[in-house]
Amino acid sequence: MKCHISYLGVVDKYDNCHYISFQEGLNIITGRSSTGKSAIIEIFDYCTGNGENTVPEGVITENAQFYFVVLVSKDTQLVVGRNQSENTTKAFYKIESEVLDVDNLSMDYFGEEYFIPLNDFRVELGHFCGLNISETDEDKESIDFRGQKKGRPSFRNMISFMLQHQNLIANKHSLFYRFDEKEKRERVIEEFKIFAGFVDQQYYLLCQHLKEKRKQLEQYKTANFKYEANKKEIVQEISDLRDNFYAISGKELFPDIPSESLLNAPKLYIDKLEAYEIEVNEVSNEYKKRYVQLSEEKNSLLAKRRKATIRLERIMSSIEYAKNYNKEIDKYKPVSEAIRADVECPFCHHTTNVTATETNKLTDAINWLNSELQKSPQRLDSFLPQKKEVEKEIADIDEKIRELNNNLNVILKTNEQLEKNKSLEEQSLKIKLKIENVLEWSLKESLNLAHYNIEGVQKEISDLEQILFERYNIEGKLSEAENFINKSMNEIGGKLDFEYKPINLHFDIKTFELYHLKEGNKKVYLRSMGSGANWLYSHVCLFLSLLRFFSSLGDKSLVPTILFLDQPSQVYFPAVIDSSTEKFDAEKLKEKEKGEKGKDEVDDDMRAVTNLFLQIADVLKSIKKQYGFTPQIIISDHADNLNLGENYTFENFVRKRWRKEGDGLINIDKVKTSIDMEPDQM
Question: 167 to each of 171, 190, 473, 536, how far by Cα in Å?
């Protein structure tokens, strides 16, 4: 998003306005320590929705009544602001169509009607940047799991790409603002594709629809799998019922037709069964044949079961033996070696190798023993799968025996029913009805499966995947973004004083981790890169490259093209010791830091700092040349009067210089004048 800050300031308790005017491109606020340079980034952060007022305690907080920032995008001015109060729950938000008279700005301008609750304020800031996505869940099932939606993406998450605080810009443990909170880190990474303009609301709706269809397909496949898995058992059940019908009635039901055919055409055979008239062959011996057949099958299974039981008993004995062997063998430690020296006769002093031969045998025995000691745990493990296999075999046999017993009982029960005056026709009818019930189940399941339309759902999934790929291609765009950022980082890094030569920085777009890739593909992460200069340059290279990337996207990107760099020269000249009211003196700062020894480093450090500012200016120039506009970089630093060569004049970038006593964001003279006038006005 092409956007820049035009004004940032404070209205004090006496209604005076203290402000800084900014431009597109490079803006430098320079001066000594404790003048309010680092407060600038905190004021911007606070005015754009930070829940906590982190403006440093001091002259500013003692005198401030209200903070404000004016953002400009195209022809639109947005004025935002917050009260100094730490517990403020509202923020000022106003689209300004008139040219703002900042010199005469007072609290009268910030009318109560333009204050809105903080949460609504953040949403409106997002709308200002074009952030109109309200739902970012790609799967509705995850909403049910969490009990709430992820919520809309936040402007506050864009801030991580815009701010490099004093304690962050050369930090070896962290790259991004607010990444110490895991949830915020994950949200920023996840919402990167939104901020880059890769996706819109329709993308998330399509993703939800795709997940629903995939879930539906899995349900259909599961139902089909269960039906097919049950089908074998149902075919056997129908076969048993038909055999029982034959045994009772003496008539075969649908002869020469496999039971599977009945199951595959359930409606056809339900109709045939309804029209089927039961006839009984009273002199049939089929029941006797059936009884003998079932008994033989049962006896065969019983024999198999006994053999399996004996095998299981042997395995259990082996397991018990292995356990005992293991306990006993643990008492003995492996033997290291046998005595290998030759033996000499004490009388004739003749040497012999007879004992060496015996020693070799003993060595072989030792090796065998050590091998056995190592195998003892493995023996026990080898028996356990056999045990499980035999136990399953016995369980399967028991299930088959139960089925045979049921069928045998049907035959025996037939005679009992006859004795109770239940005719063979009546008993045959019962079995016929059971077969009908089974076929009814099959008909219902087959109709359900036909209704599921698996092929149709698969086509819907394929179409949705194609739409997502052609319209969004997220993986491809993220990969292109990663390549763009990496190429830019190494282009910039090649001109900075990295200890690694050549520098080969890589930014992982999926994890937001940065590392230097050495030969042999060894990754050296930021925390292991050594010196403060390496950490500083890594931050600078990454954030300049991110700024270049968002700029390359033009109006598609939602991230304001603004970057704050607070105290980048601190690695070379610590800001806290710069108290000079005259000018920036690198040599004196080094002397304060390191004593006389530090003087020798001044030239090298000044060259490094100058080069850093020069490269930042060059990046902005190249963005202007490539993409037609200049993003905004605001640097707060105590480095001053740098010689940036023929192409740039340092003074042209300076927006404020605070060196003298009383200089700073708060104009002390204004405050004193207001204090002096106050009694007269009372």
Answer: 7, 25, 37, 11
| Cβ atoms of 138 and 132 closer than 8 Å | no
d(Cα 428, Cα 436) in Å, to the nearest integer?
13
3-state SS string for 391-409: HHHHHHHHHHHHHHHHHHH
Structure tokens at 301: 């299974």
Say if residue 378 is exposed, middle or buried (CB neighbours under 10 Å; 0-12, 13-18, 19+).
Answer: exposed
The position carrying tokens 């040599």 is 587
CB 38 within 8 A of CB 636: yes
Higher pLDDT, 46 or 277: 46
Q: Which residues are bridge partners to 28 per DSSP?
A: 635, 654
Q: pTM for the whole thing?
A: 0.74
Asked if residues 194 and 131 have their Cβ atoms less than 8 Å apart, the reply is yes
- Side by side, the strands of the sheet bearing 523-525 are 505-508, 513-517, 523-525
Q: Which residue has the tokens 């700029």?
A: 551
C-alpha 186/C-alpha 535 separation (Å) is: 23
Provide the 8-state DSSP code for 201.
H
Question: How many degrees, rounded to 5, is the angle at CA 292 between CA 291 and CA 298?
Answer: 90
Q: With beta carbons less than 8 A apart as the criterion, state whether 30 and 84 touch.
A: no
Q: What is the pLDDT of residues 373-428, one digit of tens each?
A: 455 555 556 677 888 888 888 888 888 788 778 767 766 665 565 445 467 777 77
Which amino acid does the sequence have at 203? Y
- Reduced to 3 states (helix: H, G, I; strand: E, B; else coil), residue 654 is strand
From its phi and psi, is residue 235 left (phi > 0), alpha (psi between -120 and 50) or beta? alpha
| Residue reference for tokens 């209200």 | 66
Cα separation, 95 vs 98, whole angstroms: 9
Summarised one tens digit per residue, pLDDT across range 186-214 is 999 999 999 999 999 999 999 999 999 99
Q: Compute the distance between CA of residue 131 and CA of residue 122 in angstroms, rounded to an integer.
A: 11
Reported as a single tens digit per residue, the pLDDT across 611-657 is 999 999 999 999 999 999 999 999 999 899 999 999 999 999 999 99
**3-class DSSP state of 341:** coil
Question: Measured between alpha carbons, how far is 320 from 322 in angstroms, rounded to an integer?
Answer: 5
Cis peptide before 502, with omega less than 30 degrees from 0? yes
Around Cβ 675, how many Cβ atoms within 10 Å?
11
How many CB atoms within 10 Å of residue 77?
17
How far is 113 from 43, CA to CA, in rounded Å?
A: 22
Give the strand order in the sheet containing 25-31: 163-164, 562-566, 632-637, 25-31, 654-658
Distance CA 102, CA 84 (A): 19
Grouping H, G, I as helix, E, B as strand and the rest as coil, residue 28 is strand
CA nearest to 114, candidates 154, 158, 151, 68: 68
